[in-house]
């Protein structure tokens, strides 16, 4: 997991703003440049504090293009949380988000889902119209047991709050659990190396 204690994966179709979301959170930066497709996946990590714990959150930004779809499944393996993104002004991206959720549930059924409506700034400034009502998305997210939040990577609205919520809800392996796992592995090695032939 590249040294991270907790794995988060960003899912969603291309151009919904997954990379911008990650960069705003990790680097507190926004680049208003033309969209560049992520190839495969990009990784970033950040040290976070939550409920008296300090740990490293690893964030995988997966490619949303159809040609990288099968590859994306490799990146969300063992993820504890998934941020499934859609563009608030593009209905098709919300429909695609539903498909990502089905796929995720088929592979990582215990992964917690955070449904994220991106580009809230273009809705609020009137540049684009909202393609699906807040109430409808909220109802859908409640139906699947997901948390719903709307963000803007441009203004930073609700970005830190989203990832802090993920950190607050995460369950890290306990130190005791790690010790028992090491003991079990050592025990198995001993049985293998010392058994009578």
From TrEMBL:
Pfam family, one: Ras
Domain of life, source organism: Eukaryota
UniProt key word Nucleotide-binding: yes
The keyword Nucleotide-binding is assigned to this record: yes
Keyword terms: Nucleotide-binding
Molecular function in Gene Ontology: GTP binding; GTPase activity
InterPro entries: P-loop_NTPase, Small_GTP-bd, Small_GTPase
NCBIfam families, A to Z: small_GTP
PANTHER family, per the entry: PTHR47978
Family: Belongs to the small GTPase superfamily. Rab family.
Full protein name: Ras-related protein Rab-24-like
The organism of origin for this protein: Megalurothrips usitatus (bean blossom thrips)
């Amino acid at each position: 997991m590249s040294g991270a204690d907790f794995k988060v994966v960003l899912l969603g179709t291309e151009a919904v703003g997954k990379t911008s979301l990650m960069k705003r959170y990790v680097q507190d930066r926004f680049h208003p440049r033309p969209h560049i497709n992520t190839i495969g996946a990009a990784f970033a990590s950040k040290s976070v504090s939550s409920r008296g714990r300090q740990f490293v959150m690893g964030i995988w930004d997966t490619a949303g293009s159809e040609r990288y779809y099968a590859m994306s499944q490799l990146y969300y393996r063992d993820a504890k949380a998934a941020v499934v993104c859609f563009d608030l002004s593009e209905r098709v991206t919300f429909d695609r988000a539903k498909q990502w959720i089905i796929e995720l549930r088929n592979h990582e059924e215990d992964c917690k889902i955070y449904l994220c409506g991106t580009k809230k700034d273009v809705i609020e400034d009137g540049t684009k119209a909202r393609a699906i009502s807040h109430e409808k998305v909220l109802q859908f997210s409640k139906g699947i047991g997901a948390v719903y939040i709307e963000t803007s990577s441009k203004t930073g609205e609700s970005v830190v709050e989203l990832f802090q919520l993920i950190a607050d809800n995460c369950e890290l392996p306990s130190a005791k659990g790690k010790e028992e796992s090491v003991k079990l592995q050592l025990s198995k090695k001993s049985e293998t190396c010392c058994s009578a032939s």
